[in-house]
Every structure is written in C-alpha cells, then in structure tokens.
Design brief:
mainly beta; TIM Barrel; Immunoglobulin-like; Jelly Rolls; eight-stranded parallel barrel; seven-stranded mixed sheet; 11 helices
C-alpha cells in the first residue's frame, strides 16, 4: 500500500492517528486528516461494547466512517479491538450467561465482523490482557473474558490462543496484533511472558503492539534498554500503537517526541506508529493535553514531527512489512511447550501465503523449510506438512529455542522463533496402558497419560496421583488421554459425573499441530444429589474426529464436581426419525412429579430405545411403547427435558427441548417452625433455595463453617458457634416461625461488625406483602474485625398474633454478622385476656388510641383497661 500522507512518505511504514475524541470525525476543525496521517484506528467505534450494545443488534456507523475514509484515501486501517476486558457489551454479556452462551456470543461477534468487513489490513485481536497478579487482572472484565474463552488451559493462555486462532480462521491475510499498555515500563516482564507464550505455542500472532502511553517522563536510555529487552525476547514485528505525550508543557512534549519517535520509527522491526489523538482538548489524557494542535496552531512537537518525517532517516527507515503488507505467515507449533528428557516431541511449521503475496506474484511458493533447535539444523523439509518428530536428548534440560526459516521461490526468506522447556524429569509421555483406549469406547478419568506434571497433566489439588482415590476437581486442572480413533466421524459422549451443587464446567480440547481445537462445548455439570451420586451426562463433539492417534485433553474450567468415565460413541443421525417430548404439567413444585411422554416415529426402521434427559442428565432409558416415565425433580429451577431416540442400526435423533418449571417448596430447617417466644439461630433459615427462602448476592458460599455449603448463604464460624456473614445490601433470609403467645415483643440480636453503617430489618411476610417488625442498627463491635459479638435490643413495632408465620431478615447495611435473634414478651401491664367469642359490645382502641373493630387481635384498651384479645 503506497503512502500518500503529507507527513510520512516512507512506503513501508505508516504514521497514523485515531478518530477524534469519541465522535468519529476524520476531518476536524478545518484540518484535513489525510494531509497529515496515512493510517487510521477508530478510538472506540469498533470495540465490541460500542457495536453490539444490544445483543444481535450491530451498529457499524462509526466504524464505517473510518474504514471508508481510509479506503477512499488509499491508506491503511486497523480494527480495534476484537477482545477487550474493559469495553464489551456488559449490559447483556455478564456472568449470569452460561459460559457456553458467552462463548457462542464471542464467536458470533467475530463472525459478524468478518461478514461486515471481509478484508481488514490489521486487527488488534486482543487488547490489554496482561494480569499483574491473579488478584489484579489489569482490566475488570478480563476474568469474565478468560472464563468465556476457555480459561488458562494447558498453556496458561488458552483463551488468548483461541482468540488468535479464531481471528486467523476468519482473517488469515490480516496482520494480527496483541496490544497492551505499561508494556515498556511497569509490566514489561508480564507482557513478554504473555506474548512469548502465544508465539511459542504457535498461535497465529503476527506482531506485538506497544501503546506507549507511559512515556511522558521516561529517559532515552531507559526506553532504549526496554525496547532492546522486548526485541531480544520476542523477535517479532512491532507497532507503536497508541503513542502520546500527555503534558501541557510544550518543551517537555517536544523533548519526548524528539527522543522517542526516532527511537521507535528507525527500528527495523517497527512496522508503524499510530498517534493517539492530535487536537489539544480532544484526547483521552488529562485535559486532552497530549494533542499536537492547540488553538489552531502547531505545538512545538508537531513542528518538529513535520521536519523529522521529511528527513531521509524517516523516509528510508526499514520495516518488517515492505509496502505495509504481510506476505508469508510462519508459526512454529510444538505439540507441547513442556517436555521431559527423552520425550519425542512433534513440531510443525505452519505456513500461509497471503492474497497480497499472490497478487504480486501468482507463482509464489515455498521452496523449503529449515527447522533448528538452538543452532542445530534438525530438518530440511520441501513438502507439506512440515512436521518433525524431535527426540529430546536425555542429557539436556532447560529452555530450548526453536527457529524455522521458510524460503520462497522469489528469493525471500521468513523466520519465526518458538521455545520449549525441557524439564529435569525423565518420565516420558506415553499412554497409561499398553493397550491404548479405542474410540468408540471408554476413557477412565484416572488413567490419564503417564508423564511429567505440566506435560500430560496438571492437577492442582485434583489428586489423582494415586490413580485410585476420587477427589473433587479444581479450577484449572487438566489431564490428557492418548486414544486410537478407529472410525472417522462425529462422536457423542456420556460423562459419569457427581456433584453436590451445580456450577462445575469442563470442556474437551485437542492441542493439535494445526490449532487449538475445542472438541466439545463448555459442559455445565448440574447437581446430581451428592458426591457419591454418579449420573450420566450426554454431550456431542462439535467436529468430526479423524481416524488414528489423538490426544484428548479434559480441561476443568470450574471445579467442584467429580468425574469418573467418558464413553464415546459414533454419532449418526437418522433423518427418518422424528421424536417429540411432552409433559403432563408445565409447572410443578419440588416433591411433586411430572409424567414425561416421548413420541418417536420412524418411516424406515424400528425404535430400539429412547433415552430421556433432564438438564443433560440421563433420567431414564425406555425400551417399550408407550415411552413414558414419572420424574421427581429434587431442586427448584428450570429443567430442559430432551430425548434421544435410537433405531436398530444405532442411528439416533434428538428431540427439541421441552422446559419444565419447578417451583421450590418451603420446609423449616428444623422440621418444625421455630417457636416464639424463643431463639432464631440465623443459620437455621428455611430450606427451599435461592429466590424462595433466601437471596444471596453471589452463588459462591464464602463461609468457613462447612455448613449448608450447597446454598449461597455464607455461614461463618462465630461466637462459639455459627453465624450468617459476608452480608451484602438487599440479601435476605427467611424463617418459618410459630408464635405461641400473642403480645408485644422485644428482639435481642447478637451481632458483630468490623465497620460502620451495618444493619438489617426483620419483617413479617404474607405472600408478597412485607410488614416491618423492627430495624436493627448493628454498631461497629470491633475495628476491622467481626469476631467480637454484642447484643442490640429493640422493641417490635407491632404486637404479634398467634400462629405460623414467615419472617424475613433483609440486610440494609452490608458487612454485619448475625448470630441469633431472641424474641421475648414485654411486660405490658395487661389486666385481662379475652377469647374472640367473649368480646362484648364496648368500643375498643389500639395502643395508639385508634378505634379498632371486633376482628382486631392483640392488645387493646377496653373500658380503660389493657386487654389481650386472642
């Protein structure tokens, strides 16, 4: 692409800018963009949150302005950005969406970008994903994005590798970039680790982007040293993607431009510089002070920049992309990033000749590929696939550099590095058994491949080391299984799982030499009834398996469940089968039953069996007509009911989903309602579940008391027993009580708080009507500690009547711990008591002096005396 801008006339690298201050204007305030810059990046318009604020509704207007302007003026354009944890459609893309739905939403976003813009010169695939630490994710949405894209996985960066694989699948001719800030000064080590891992894993990343926002006061020597460290570690093309010097001090800005622009621009590996704004007051920095034009006039830095870009040094500076185009992609993909001494490691050199290269030379082709380990040439390859089975020496360990050199028939060559880590372990990777499991067939989860930790398995606290004792899975665990696929085709699988609560998630993957494949969807493990209650989940692989040897990886995205076996079957659909599911009721209550009827029909074969699933758990296999079963859901919620009909040849057909709504059933925790007068222990709230007998702000149980852990209510150790803790505003818990003595009461609350402004309300619930009984203001019982408990006593605002009732505690001020509530009758000076049938005709008044009717129950004043009416 030929440069045509006024400032940069270098044909191989651009000097670009962004749209102006959120309004997507190109020509602005009398200045013509194309007379200054020859590359454009939309500042915000092309970010996912800007485009798809409403799900499946895409707003491309701002993106079109920049894209069409670049096309009209014959200069290059960068799409910014596909994945960013700070600007995504957070009104609907939230943690409440299942992971599988979030992943589909991201795929849909990528697909729609491709549909709208089939060709893009450059793309920031991922923006700002460096994590300073596990507790400091750089951007608030990064944990959500990481979870949605497959988590850390085997490489530690699976989610980012998958993002680049997805981008390359759709945009193989684009220059694919990772972009981040603080990468020169404060988080350089983490940045290098991230980018280098993507490169080493063979992800299709073409370049790294340095935002350069942090350089306002950096010294020339410090920046020079940092750039050298980055280049020595990565050896890849680089872009200065968001350069600005944010200061109102003209002299300081000019000094930094003079120091840093030539330093960046004249690096052979620098492919271009994008400035981040050009009008003072219209940039993202404080007061917009990074702008180069102020009050219609050039600031000194701009005056100098024009002079520099007209110099021979600027015009003749070399670029890794002559003509600003990518021609041949080279990625070195080792099967594993970690290996043991003596392992045999498959390594593939992946190549791609771009459309731009073919347009320049229709006969372009690859002559040969050389692969080096260190300085040793281990293979020269002239035919695809370019694969080497490298036998790791048994007398070596540590980091080994891989280098591929690709020679094309036009006299050019292209290089790419990778690295592997040879562990000190000599435990070679090999199948667990001499006889490799065959598919169709069963994988026993404890029989993952032999090998070193980090090579064939990684099981943090997921102790299958004995290969006998089943323990709960933990987040981030993974195990690999060598299998022989005997028949090519699509496979379904049955997983034997157990879980005391819902929330576990896993997926099956294959780290092939071509890419990172997610074989299955993200499978959410429902509650089965307990850790020993193993049930069968059904799923299907998303792509066919080729015949031959495969290594399948079980990735645990969210742990806490148990898994025993995976049984794989060939999946063949019989389109001549129709199958439907019906329930005799659409809504039931826990403890009640629903009759599920399946109607399968086939025009060509007989029905061998029908399997019925609720939330993907097998609840029955039916072999005879009528295909009916009685189902008793154990938990409240929405159940997806499906059925699979299988014919005599083993072919099958799945029904459409039928939804069964199950309402909760309230049951007092202690079997009977709590007697009043008496004590309500806070942890003894009613059974029934979230939304019925309690509401907790998050699903996780943060308590340390190991009590009612399947619920979201946080039960902690406290005051010699248990208490409700980690409270948040608007959370609530309910109790069934039985008032046995009517009258006026006082509430003595035993509570603690390490902060101020904590408190809760006690109310009587009658269906959806709430009547306040009292409000408890919890004092700060100790500074920043919740271990000191005190009592707070208040009178109820109304007299209690006899009978069974439901009471609710609602948190008004967060961070209070509640141990118990004691309800005592107050000595009211009542002089008499009447049953309702002995009322008499005298007028009666409540304690506020208001006249009340004969149906009033409680304390009244009658003939000048206090009387308790039952």
């Amino acid at each position: 692409m030929t440069a045509s801008a006024q400032l940069s006339s270098n044909p191989d690298k651009f000097l670009g800018n962004i749209t102006t201050s959120y309004n997507n204007d190109m020509d602005y305030s009398g200045f013509t963009y194309s007379k200054y810059w020859n590359q454009v990046t939309p500042e915000n318009a092309s970010k996912w949150g800007s485009v798809e604020g409403t799900r499946n509704s895409f707003s491309w207007g701002g993106v079109d302005k920049a894209f069409n302007y670049a096309k009209k003026n014959n200069f290059t354009y960068k799409f910014h950005a596909l994945i960013w944890g700070a600007q995504y459609p957070d009104r609907w893309f939230t943690s409440s969406l299942p992971i599988s739905e979030r992943y589909k939403a991201i795929v849909n976003w990528f697909d729609n970008v491709k549909k709208k813009y089939p060709t893009l010169p450059m793309i920031d695939v991922v923006n700002e994903a460096v994590w300073s630490s596990e507790n400091d994710p750089h951007q608030p949405g990064n944990p959500l994005m990481r979870e949605s894209m497959g988590g850390k996985g085997k490489t530690g960066y699976d989610w980012l590798i998958k993002a680049f694989e997805m981008a390359f699948e759709r945009f193989p001719n684009s220059i694919l970039i990772y972009n981040d800030y603080n990468s020169i000064r404060w988080q350089r080590t983490q940045y290098i680790d991230l980018v280098r891992t993507l490169r080493d894993a063979g992800a299709p990343i073409d370049a790294y982007g340095l935002q350069c926002h942090e350089l306002t006061d950096i010294s020339l020597s410090e920046c020079t040293s940092a750039l050298k460290e980055l280049d020595d570690a990565l050896k890849m093309p680089m872009y200065s993607t968001e350069f600005d010097i944010g200061t109102a001090d003209d002299a300081q800005q000019e000094k930094q431009y003079k120091n840093l622009i030539p330093l960046l621009w004249e690096k052979d590996y620098c492919a271009g510089v994008t400035l981040w704004g050009w009008f003072y007051g219209q940039t993202w920095t404080t007061d917009g002070n990074s702008g180069l034009i102020k009050n219609g006039k050039d600031r000194p830095a701009m005056t100098w920049l024009k002079q520099y870009m007209a110099s021979d040094k600027a015009k003749n500076a070399k670029s890794p992309y002559p003509g600003m185009k990518k021609r041949v992609s080279v990625f070195v993909r080792p099967r594993d990033l970690k290996v043991a001494k003596g392992d045999v490691l498959p390594i593939k050199v992946r190549t791609y000749i771009t459309d731009d290269a073919k347009a320049e030379n229709a006969s372009i082709a690859i002559d040969k590929v050389e692969l080096y380990v260190g300085t040793e040439l281990v293979s020269t390859m002239t035919e695809e696939p370019y694969i080497v089975n490298y036998e790791v020496p048994s007398n070596t360990s540590g980091t080994k550099t891989l280098k591929a050199i690709v020679y094309t028939n036009d006299g050019n060559k292209y290089e790419r590095l990778s690295r592997i880590n040879v562990l000190s372990s000599s435990i070679k990777r090999e199948p667990y058994n001499e006889t490799v499991p065959e598919l169709p067939g069963t994988i026993n989860i404890s029989e993952y491949d032999k090998g070193a930790s980090g090579v064939s398995y990684n099981t943090p606290s997921f102790d299958y080391s004995t290969r006998k004792t089943k323990t709960a899975t933990k987040d981030g665990a993974w195990m690999e299984y060598t299998v022989d696929v005997k028949e090519e085709g699509v496979y379904s699988f049955d997983a034997e799982v157990a879980a005391s609560k819902a929330g576990g998630v896993f997926h099956l993957a294959e780290y092939s030499l071509d890419n990172l494949e997610y074989l299955s969807e993200f499978v959410e493990v429902p509650k089965t009834g307990g850790v020993n209650d193993f049930q069968t989940m059904h799923g299907r692989l998303q792509m066919p398996l080729t015949a031959g040897r495969h290594i399948i990886c079980l990735n645990v995205d969210k742990g806490g469940f148990y898994i025993d076996k995976l049984t794989f079957s060939r999946y063949e659909e019989d389109k001549n089968i129709s199958v439907s599911v019906a329930t005799n009721k659409s809504t039931i209550t826990v403890g009640d039953s629903a009759v599920i009827t399946v109607t399968p029909k086939s025009t060509t074969s007989t029905i061998a069996n029908v399997k019925v699933f609720a939330n993907n758990l097998l609840i029955g296999t039916l072999t005879e007509s009528p295909y009916k079963l009685v189902y008793y859901p154990a938990e409240k919620g929405s159940y997806t009911i499906t059925a699979i009909a299988t014919d005599a040849e083993g072919k099958e057909k799945m029904s459409a989903v039928k939804t069964l709504k199950v309402n909760g059933r309230r049951v007092p925790y202690l079997a009977n309602p709590i007697s009043i007068p008496g004590v309500i222990q806070a942890e003894n709230y009613d059974n029934g579940g979230e939304g019925l007998t309690y509401h907790d702000a998050d699903e996780a149980n943060q308590g340390d008391a190991s009590f009612r852990t399947a619920d979201g209510v946080d039960i902690v150790k406290g005051n010699g027993g248990k208490a409700v803790g980690y409270t948040s505003a608007s959370e609530w818990i309910e109790y069934s009580v039985n008032v046995k003595e009517p009258g006026e009461y006082q509430c003595i609350a035993t509570v603690s708080s390490g902060t101020t402004n904590s408190g809760f309300t006690l109310a009587l619930r009658n269906n959806s009507v709430s009547t306040t009984l009292c409000k408890i203001n919890v004092p700060q019982t100790a500074n920043n500690s919740w271990d000191t408990y005190k009592t707070v006593t208040v009178n109820l605002s109304r007299a209690l009547t006899v009978g069974e009732q439901v009471w609710r505690i609602t948190i008004n001020g967060a961070n209070c711990n509640i141990d118990k509530l004691e309800l005592k009758l107050i000595d009211t000076g009542i002089e008499d008591m009447e049953n309702s049938q002995q009322e008499g005709n005298q007028p009666q008044y409540n304690l506020s002096g208001q006249k009340v009717g004969t149906d009033f129950r409680g304390i009244v004043i009658k003939n000048g005396r206090k009387v308790l009416k039952r």
